[in-house]
Each structure stands twice: as structure tokens, then as C-alpha cells.
Amino acid sequence: DEDDDDDEATQLISSAVKQANAIAVGPGLGKSDWAVHTLATVLASRISSTTSTPTPTVIDADALNLLALHLPNEDQVLRSLDAFDADFRATFKQSMATIRASHASLTLQRLLSSDKPLAHCIMTPHPAEAARLLGMSVRQVQADRFAAAAALNEMYGAVVLLKGPGTIVTDGDTTAVLVGGNPGMAVGGMGDTLTGIITGLLAQGFNVKEAATLGGAVLNEAGDIVAKKNGERGLLPSDLPAIIQTLVNPSPTTRPSITLF
Q1: How does pLDDT run across 45-67, given as a tens digit for each residue?
Q2: Edge-to-edge, what's the strand order for the sheet holding 259-260?
Q3: What is the largest CA-CA distance in the chain?
Q4: For residues 9 and 37, is the Cβ–Cβ distance under 8 A?
Q5: CB 169 within 8 A of CB 178
Q6: Closest among 219, 100, 226 to 169, alpha carbons compared
Q7: How far apart are CA 165 and CA 126, in angstroms?
Q8: pTM, rounded to two decimals
């Protein structure tokens, strides 16, 4: 029975989340009904009745795109659909009311309707993902990256790491601009690597602002070290782990560069 399978999956995901010290959701998630169900379960389960602080969570990739489909304004939702292929866009537009009325979708909408619904989370959008979440164009995001990051923080209550040249990290009170990084890092899987670094830092006890800032700085520095040695062309996420290990066991000569505003 499909409902029984969903209930079992919910229980398994919820149990795993409640045992975690840190959570990452989004990379490899997809955009199916199951993905919406999983995201809603993760976000609901991270809020425990026994602790006052939700489990810190990194939200990336498809999780960001799914959040964009649950913006309260349906016109904004329609503008967010460039993340999806043509068949999905056509189906979604025809069935938007039904899709947004599913149990998992309603759960997600209810969670997002609260004040600062993603407090103690880190959102890591690139400019296109930020544009979908804000219901605007990529050009508008890039025209004022500080304003875009601040708007996402205001909407969701999360620490926001806005990727791109001059990576921005803001918690609404303070903003960091991370130096370093290079065009060769604009390759599939690099964002997943960042999510892994940040989640590891959260699990070690860093708070969400610290983990986002340090994680972004470590990734940028590792990417630049590899690019300096081998060049930017052909740079892959798999080139970075050995360098990352050195950077997170630092000596004074391997400290990532961070500029704080």
C-alpha cells in the first residue's frame, strides 16, 4: 500500500533526523513527490519537543528549488519554474492547485508560513537559485547581491551563503565577504562539496554563521590552491579533499583568507 510505504519512509527519515547533530538536505534529492515529502519530513523533524534549538541544517540544490515552488504567491512560483525542464513546467502549470494541495506540499507550506521558518539553517544558493526563491531575475540578484542575500535572510531566518564572485555570508546582523575562489570551480559537484564541509563543521559544534563562513573560505582556498598548481580548466571537486584536509588542520601558512565587513 502506497500510504503505508509513505508512513514507513516518514518514520525512518524522522528517526534519523532526530538522532543527528547536523543535517544536509538537497544534493541528489530530485524534484519528485517523494522529494517534497522528504524535505517536508526533514524540516518538520529537525524541530524537537525536547530541545529549544532545532538541529542545524544545510539546505542546498534541489531543496532550494522545491522551496521556491512553495512560495506563498503563485505568480512568484511560476517565475521560479526555470529550474525545471519543459515537461515539468507544463505539467506543473496545469496541475499547480493539485500539486500544492498534496499532504507533503501543505506540510511544507505550513512550515514556511511561520516566522523565520528556517532559523538555525544555512541556505547556500547560487544566483539562479536565489532568483527563484525571491521570484526575480538573475540579473536583479546580481545587480545587488548584498540586498538579495539580506532579503533571503529576512524571508527565511536562515544564514545565507550566496555563491558567486565575492561569496556573501549573512545572518542579518553581520555580513562576511569571502575572498578567493575561481571560475574553474563553477562545475557540478562543487556545491555538494561545500555542503559537506559546512555540515561537518556543524557536527563539530560550530554555529551556523561560523560553519557557513569557514566552510566557504576553506572551499575557496582549496580551489585556488589546486588551480594554481594545475590550472582552472578541468578542475574537479575530487581534486579538493586532500587540500581541504590540510586546511582544516591548519598551520599559520594554510589559514583561509576571510574578509569581514
Answers
A1: 998 656 678 999 999 999 999 99
A2: 23-25, 57-59, 121-123, 159-162, 167-170, 175-178, 259-260
A3: 59
A4: yes
A5: yes
A6: 219
A7: 10
A8: 0.89
DSSP assignment string, 127-191: HHHHHHHHTS-HHHHHHTHHHHHHHHHHHH-SEEEE-SSSEEEE-SS-EEEE----GGG-STTHH
In percent, the amount of the chain with pLDDT more than 70 equals 89
Contact 240, 225 (CB under 8 A): no
In contact, 59 and 158? CB cutoff 8 Å? yes
Q: Find out whether 122 and 161 touch, Cβ atoms under 8 Å.
A: yes
Q: Is 18 exposed, middle or buried (0-12, 13-18, 19+ CB in 10 A)?
A: middle
Reported residue count of the chain is 261
Residue of 128, 158, 157 whose CA lies nearest to 145: 128
| Angle between helices 33-45 and 61-68 in degrees, nearest 10 | 100
Question: For 25, which DSSP code?
Answer: E
The answer to whether the CB of 175 falls within 8 A of the CB of 146 is yes
Backbone angles phi, psi at 79, to 5 degrees: -70, -20
